[in-house]
Amino acid sequence: MSEGTQAPAPGAPAAPKEQPAKVFTGAVYECVRCGTRTTQEELAKLPEVKCICGYRVFRKARPAVVKQIKAI
Ligand SMILES: [Zn+2]
Fold first, then answer.
1. pTM
2. Which structural domain range is residue 37 located in?
3. What is the pLDDT of residues 1-24, one digit of tens each?
4. 31 phi, psi to nearest 5 deg
5. Overall number of domains in the chain
6. How far is the CA of 41 from the centre of ligand 1 (A)?
7. CA–CA gap between residue 22 and residue 14 (Å, rounded)
């Protein structure tokens, strides 16, 4: 007697999970309390959106890298 060996049902297509790219990479957020700037990517790494000061309210700030175009 063979002991129950159940093979997985064939024919199930493996659908790759793609995360929607909703966030804009490079976006910089600034804590409204202490003014610490962090990027969207940094916030995404954290388990929760929270500043180092404990505040959780951010406002969108301009990226640190600013191109200056010299007017001729
Ligand atoms: Zn803060």
1. 0.50
2. 28-61
3. 656 667 666 776 776 777 665 545
4. -65, 130
5. 1
6. 17
7. 24
